[in-house]
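Appendix B: a complete holo record

For completeness, this appendix reproduces one full record from the ligand-bound portion of the collection. The bound molecule is zinc ion. The inputs are the chain sequence and the ligand SMILES; the output is the full three-dimensional arrangement of the complex, encoded as structure tokens. No fields have been trimmed.
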Amino acid sequence: MQPERGPKRQFPQEMRNFNRNQIFKMIILKEKEREFLERAIHLARQGMLSGSGGPFGCVITKGEEIVGEGFNQVTSSNDPTAHAEVVAIRQACSKLGTYQLKDCVIYTSCEPCPMCLGAIYWARPLRVVYANTREEAAAIAFDDDFIYREIGAAMEDRKIPFVHSPHQLARDLFKEWDEWEGKTLY
Ligand SMILES: [Zn+2]
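The structure of the chain with zinc ion bound, as generated:
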């Protein structure tokens, strides 16, 4: 005898718009996580409408508490590094009095660019939850994909020339750090 089948499982509306491969990469967020992600999207809109910069927002949580948040401030502060994730990481680290965000989760309205990806790896959070993808960002002229490709490019093929000029003083400095017993490793 065939076991009775339960009601057909329905994915939420936004997931039904994607193909199979995309759905497998997604996770269904818990209520609270969804609220944090929506707060990041809200901040993105707020930053955009106030003329701060691009439509990007970020929230960092520790447990149930928001410990840092921010939106893109590149054009208003003349700071190319003032991406939402960097702004939020700085705020969270300052609030928590630490240079590492272990036990924290980063919610961002868009998949991080390579700079923020680097910042996130240095900050070492538990995980990152993002809404829009970098392909969607590229479609509205935020082409981070270009920088991702540059990382893999040979030094001589990079769009911005990188000139290697070895120097003994620089080597001495590294040796000094390596042998210094008072350093804080990170
Ligand atoms: Zn970024």
